[in-house]
């Protein structure tokens, strides 16, 4: 099942695996750590390898900012497609905190949200199904001109027209 | 009138393609109904009681005759040949087929119209004073600012899935507020500071619905180049902190109230300091570019026609009444702003047939330079009529049922479509409006009552703005029967206040008598020339309650 869109390509996965304990973290080459588990693992263990952070909308965003440094991946898990908080979270991570790693959307988001996700700084999409992933790629560029400054276009249209 | 360049046109055209693709996927069963829902709502498409309802955007209420003709054409080809003008200056069609909507949108796009963000949990149409640009006492024309906000908010990637809908209104008059800015999520009042610079006083957290609240000031002077970055900061705080667990507590007004305006304001400032100097800071070039579109009306050097009009008014009592209620002052000598009433007794308030739309388009070209506006009182405005042509215009309007001389009176009812059309409504609103209009059909009597806002909503969603009518009427459902709750003292203007409920509700049949009793108390108590709202403020509800609920002998 190819349902991950990364670098605008459809792939099976890129190796990140969600872990549920310190033991699993130690065994995994590319552990994806739920945000709530970070404290339990502790900074010594976390310092031993690169890891990604899996953030749910109900987690503490301020604490995420404090925890972010050079992690290569942050995954925002959509609880419901109608809950648009991750759009602002991703945007602030890029804009205020100069986060350069991969920001991934996961969970219950719609392929029709792909364009807005990219514009807000998401860089990979873990879609619900392969069909969703194909739809996301097919529809994301239908609207190709935008008024606002965003993460794909640093200047708003009024500075370019 | 803002005119699209190739970018604006491309955005609207591509949005049509996008919605067509989404509709096709839905009809093919490839897009679940619950996922199509937010997508269609963001294009103004509701599924309603009898059929889908399509809400078409009229940015800040301004239209051209060409756009009005296209609206008439679309309503005839795809609907039942009439439309409804809403309290947010938009247009609704109540009977389009879902399959036809992409084609309707393509037709609208051909005249620079669209339905983008007229519904859904996103930033809606920005509204303003229907007399913007011609008001003698305005700080400056607010419409370029509405257009700047329109562009910023259109397909904004971050704010398409907010906790709830979000409405912005701008006012520039220094003495009146015809845009009800204190009852919007964000209200912007244009002001001048000590250095004579123009900026905005910012109110946040106003709204109607289940918890009516007047907005609170969070910035006494926002410099104009900071408008977009500041709006973006407010929206960011709302998107992250607004409640999402209960749709009735999800509007920004609940957040501001719960958090306190000081804490909310501090959070906004914290965001703002980080983006204030960013690329979204407005440039003088852009402000100047947008402003050029609103100076296209060419005024001749004319003198006021005071004497000629006085003679015409003396000779025709009907023209005199119309002049008194439906014609407003203009900043330009020799011109006037005319309100075409869509409140004829026996017709749903705010409705117009395709034939009326086409007639209004013709008259707008003949008398008002081809532009017209929609007011939040659901009437149509010709903003630039020569005083010397008022009499001729009146004759044509009168012959076509568009000159009811009742603007601003009790019979200029603001009314939602109600239970006759709307799936959300608890009760019908149009028949109640009609029965009251019929009861108060004596024009001299109406004139004597003076300015009086009667607002009727068919449910708590308050599309008829019942909370801010001097007299407000709310339809409620009691065990399957329709009843009407009356409130007094609401004010949408600078006195911004929410009306207070009079007491137990009434049946539809009782309503005209109830309103009559309220009016009787007013007439008995008023000082010479004292308006209704002032008497309610002075006396409180007690004498009104006493009369309305008095036991019959």
Automatic annotation (TrEMBL), chain A:
InterPro entries for the chain: UCP030820
One Pfam family hit: DUF934
Protein's name according to its UniProt entry: DUF934 domain-containing protein
Organism: Reinekea thalattae
The organism's taxonomic lineage, starting at the top: Bacteria, Pseudomonadati, Pseudomonadota, Gammaproteobacteria, Oceanospirillales
Automatic annotation (TrEMBL), chain B:
GO molecular function, one term: 4 iron, 4 sulfur cluster binding
Pfam families: NIR_SIR, NIR_SIR_ferr
Domain spans labelled Nitrite/sulphite reductase 4Fe-4S: 119-274, 412-548
Gene3D superfamilies with a match to the protein in the record: 3.90.480.20, Sulfite Reductase Hemoprotein, domain 1, Sulfite Reductase Hemoprotein,Domain 2
Every Nitrite/Sulfite reductase ferredoxin-like domain range: 53-110, 344-399
Top-rank lineage group of the source organism: Bacteria
Protein name: Nitrite/sulfite reductase
Organism (species): Reinekea thalattae
The entry's keywords: 4Fe-4S, Heme, Iron, Iron-sulfur, Metal-binding, Oxidoreductase
